[in-house]
Design a protein that fits this description.
Helix content is 48%, strand content 9%. It is α+β, with helices and mostly antiparallel strands. The chain folds into four domains: 125 residues, no CATH class; 90 residues, no CATH class; 136 residues, no CATH class; 126 residues, no CATH class.
Length: 568
């Protein structure tokens, strides 16, 4: 059990047409249903259903879920308002209306989610008619994504950019943390530059701001003596000394995805990893990562992984650095609300009324514009998290990352062009191996009614072209074992050979009782399978007659063949 007491999530506020949603991270947003261009009855019904989902345990643990549904409801409201006879009551939401909405959605993944997500939200309420809920439950073909993994050069470019940005931030925060510890220990003389910097860092750690005054216009102004000591009043001289920026938090997310194959939602909501108390020497801490992926379904949301920091290349080293880089921000947030024990906490550069975080000036997890900040910082042309995850799981880790094996294969591996290209030589090699095995296991000698003129008799068949064997160089004669005659297209098998081959088949089978399975399969498996094929072609009746006609000469030939005396 956690050392601190459990904090029950605050219930949602539902005031008629206004619904307030507070998610697991403490972020708050308000939705005003009187903005929907629909009748009052529909506004109240949608607000009531919406508030049920926003309630603790209602299913929406993130503001992303409620915000996404809100925009779908806005689109649906505008559609209803544009009808010749707009619906006024719940019974006016008919199957015909829903089907018109469905048919007018744009093609692609956006329209697919508009239909499936909104239908899933509405159809759970029995206040709608059974026919309408059945229409909403009708399956539609899934829309495939064209998203592909990063090419090798793109992968290296993204990884290098993420490492450069996060490493710079980590070293910066690490250096200033050491300076703060020295100030707290009384190392610096009062009013010296180092002392003023330390005092600024203390204020920054406690309040999120360096010492300042509030101007008449409400804006903050850093005190002049601290501006001089710090070197400036910009973010790089003030709050960035102890906190990550939005782009730096995104760079850390990229590295976590790259290292552990997680998706953006899991990284965004990751709780702070804790060192296992019995992990051994303090020199090599082992961290327990508590992961949650709601889309996995009930009973399979949660997962734990252990990561040990045993050196520079160990997965746990990234966790150590992440904890150090976010230590001050996490301490500030958890001091305000101990339930907000998340790893990815960063300082908002422009905190204000639009900031949904409950602890100003900090934000938790990834926001919608985090990718834009990353692109501006790096100059890259694409947000990498989704493609990075596919690259890592399909091409590098090559195993499911919080997915079933079926999902991993069908969504991540099989549609990926790089996997398909890399699979060509493997498939070709497998096909060649299968062909070679089939050629060994299937009879290739030709069946004849009688002996042909010019054929040379062998212990197992007649040879029609001894000088040009497929098993030896042309013109030097066949050098293969007589057991290979059944695998040679030059061999001819006629009724005279049937008794001898039937007896050979039974003799090889009897060797199984005295040899290990692997040895028997390696030495006798292929000849036995070819004789099995011959038996199937001749029929059981012919085979039984052949066994009945085995002579002492046939037995002697077979005995010498099994003893290898013909190979001398």
């Amino acid at each position: 059990m956690p050392a601190e007491p459990h904090h029950r999530p605050a219930p949602r506020q539902h005031d008629g047409l206004k619904v307030e949603h507070r998610d697991k991270k403490g972020n708050i947003d308000t939705f005003e249903f009187d903005r929907l261009p629909i009748s009052a009855e529909l506004q109240h019904a949608f607000a009531r259903w919406f508030s049920e989902k926003c309630a603790p345990g209602g299913g929406w643990d993130s503001l992303k879920s409620s915000q996404a549904m809100w925009f779908r409801l806005l689109a649906f409201g505008r559609f209803c308002a544009g009808q010749e006879i707009p619906p006024q009551r719940l019974e006016d939401l008919t199957p015909a209306l829903w089907n018109r909405w469905r048919m007018r959605r744009p093609e692609g993944i956006y329209g697919y989610h508009q239909v499936t997500s909104l239908g899933g939200f509405l159809r759970k309420h029995a206040e709608l008619s059974e026919a309408t809920r059945s229409a909403m439950a009708k399956r539609i073909p899934a829309v495939g994504t064209k998203e592909t993994a990063l090419a090798p050069d793109e992968f290296q470019e993204v990884r290098a950019a993420a490492r450069r940005i996060f490493r710079s931030a980590h070293l910066r925060i690490q250096s200033n943390t050491a300076h703060l510890h020295q100030w707290r220990a009384g190392t610096f003389e009062p009013q010296t530059r180092d002392w003023l910097v330390g005092e600024s860092l203390e204020a920054l750690a406690q309040t999120g701001y360096v010492p300042h005054i509030i101007r008449n216009n409400g804006k903050k102004r850093t005190l002049p003596q601290y501006v001089t000591a710090l070197g400036g009043s910009g973010a790089q001289w003030t709050w960035k000394r102890l906190f990550l920026s939005r782009a730096e938090a995104y760079a850390l997310s990229v590295l976590l995805v790259m290292e552990f194959g997680l998706n953006a939602t899991v990284v965004s909501g990751m709780r702070t990893p804790r060192a296992i108390s019995d992990s051994g020497s303090d020199e090599f801490p082992t961290y327990r990562m508590e992961l949650e992926k709601p889309r996995r379904g009930a009973g399979r949301h949660f997962e734990t992984r252990n990561a040990t920091d045993s050196g520079a290349d160990a997965p746990g080293r990234l966790i150590t650095q992440a904890l150090e880089a976010t230590s001050h921000a996490r301490a500030f947030v958890t001091a305000a609300d101990s339930s907000l024990g998340f790893l990815l906490v960063w300082r908002n550069s422009l905190p204000g009324p639009r900031n949904l975080s409950p602890v100003t000036p900090f934000s938790i997890g990834l926001t919608k514009n985090a990718a834009d900040c990353w692109l501006n910082e790096t100059g890259l042309t694409g947000a990498p998290l989704r493609r990075m995850r596919k690259t890592v799981n399909a091409l590098h880790r090559r195993e499911p990352g919080q997915n079933s094996q079926e999902t991993h294969d069908s969504v991540y591996v099989l549609p990926e062009p790089q996997v398909q290209e890399a699979s060509v030589p493997i498939i070709a090699e497998g096909a060649e191996s299968a062909l070679a095995h089939a050629q060994q296991a299937v009879l290739r000698a030709q069946l004849a009614v009688s002996a042909e003129a010019g054929g040379q008799e062998t212990p197992t068949a007649d040879c029609s072209d001894y000088e040009n064997s497929p098993f030896s160089a042309p013109g030097i004669g066949c050098r293969a074992s007589f057991l290979m005659c059944t695998a040679c297209p030059n061999a001819r098998i006629h009724p005279k050979h049937h008794p001898r081959l039937a007896y050979l088949h039974r003799s090889i089978a009897s060797l199984r009782s005295v040899l290990e399975d692997q040895i028997w399969a390696e030495e006798w498996g292929s000849p036995f399978m070819r004789l099995e094929d011959l038996k199937a072609r001749l029929s059981d009746v012919v085979w039984s007659e052949a066994l009945a006609g085995v002579s002492s000469a046939d037995k002697e030939v077979v005995g010498r063949l099994l003893e290898g005396k013909y190979d001398l």
